[in-house]
Amino acid sequence: xxxxxxxxxxxxxxxxxxxxxxxxxxxxxxxxxxxxxxxxxxxxxxxxxxxxxxxxxxxxxxxxxxxxxxxxxxxxxxxxxxxxxxxxxxxxxxxxxxxxxxxxxxxxxxxxxxxxxxxxxxxxxxxxxxxxxxxxxxxxxxxxxxxxxxxxxxxxxxxxxxxxxxxxxxxxxxxxxxxxxxxxxxxxxxxxxxxxxxxxxxxxxxxxxxxxxxxxxxxxxxxxxxxxxxxxxxxxxxxxxxxxxxxxxxxxxxxxxxxxxxxxxxxxxxxxxxxxxxxxxxxxxxxxxxxxxxxxxxxxxxxxxxxxxxxxxxxxxxxxxxxxxxxxxxxxxxxxxxxxxxxxxxxxxxxxxxxxxxxxxxxxxxxxxxxxxxxxxxxxxxxxxxxxxxxxxxxxxxxxxxxxxxxxxxxxxxxxxxxxxxxxxxxxxxxxxxxxxxxxxxxxxxxxxxxxxxxxxxxxxx
Length: 462
Ligand SMILES: Cc1ncc(COP(=O)(O)O)c(C=O)c1O
Description:
Layout: E1 4-5, E2 15-17, H1 40-43, H2 49-55, E3 61-63, H3 66-72, E4 80-82, H4 84-90, E5 95-100, H5 111-123, E6 128-133, H6 137-149, E7 152-158, H7 159-164, H8 166-174, E8 178-182, H9 188-196, H10 204-216, E9 223-225, H11 232-238, H12 240-251, E10 259-263, H13 268-282, E11 288-294, H14 299-302, E12 305-309, E13 318-322, H15 345-352, E14 359-361, H16 363-376, H17 383-402, E15 407-412, H18 420-427, H19 438-445
Parallel strand pairs: 5-15, 6-7, 6-9, 7-8, 10-11, 10-15, 11-14
Antiparallel strand pairs: 1-4, 2-3, 4-5, 12-13
């Protein structure tokens, strides 16, 4: 039995997988302010046309450019590891495998798309990218990619994480990016929110508004915006994770996994691992596919499926997704990357189709699982990743109780070496759990009724 299953560089996947080609019902289109589907031209001030083409692409397979692979080889193919020490500790008959995305230079799955996006922008003649970041993983990934491709990078970092995670900001600076706390006084959106709520901890929705405004108002028109999750092209770039994992499971002598798990903030690392296996599920395989979110930000488990903006200032098109409302300001839990009010439309549509079974956990349970992980497998995971580990442990215990030899596969989306303040709070008993009160959920989502309605599923067709 191997502890780690490694692919040769020559076995790296050369195409990304697009779930949009195989969903039982076509993906609902993004809508403009007039309620009509947006056209590629309307997105052109925000994204380069080559990425817009990927956003609306319905082809099943998309070639990965050789120049992108040449950068990814720095850490890809990433290892698939077997969590034998955790299995032993839990006395489970389950075989637990995890895809180790923490081995990238910035420490998470985020560079898989950061590199691709920086590449496509560069090819389109763009010289500068703006973006938002929550925990700082995405901002540091884009800073890393921009530095390798010779682009300027400006990052709006959610205030609470900017204060809690100074080292992520320093990483961005090492890679040559400029990082400011959001809301900032550098954009109209930021100034307006600061005037209304000077002490706000910030949110991804606010930071996205700032980053988009900074891109579309650049008089040179050489700046575009880059998003680290949610959008179809971002999820597409992440499917290299699941495609590698499929080959590696085969090398380990496994057929398909019984259970696939990933934490989900905007949905990209979960989708990256899960989508290639979702294709098997659509074709009849029995696989439980579980995206995991925090109870404090229960987008998939409690929020309605509706059209909503992706940002607080309503600059983005309307996306059909599970949403807590674009004005939602999440409590300052430590998994900063899981505090987004929405969720990737591709993930949400697959949930409505019954392909995924989302679940939510409190952060104290997740930190407890992270400590069990650190004391068995040895690595210190990101607070976001701990949600996937908590679900994995629950499923492994269930397999023990049922006496079943299940194969569990999860995504180890990143390391937590820059996130130790959350561990500190947990270990010193200062971490509190937070469940979103129902009346607050109702308040944040009540205005969704004023936006165009997402049709509900009827006999397999929207
Ligand atoms: C390590 C890690 N895992 C997961 C996430 C959640 O994002 P997504 O759902 O897009 O994978 C983040 C976001 O910052 C992250 O840094």
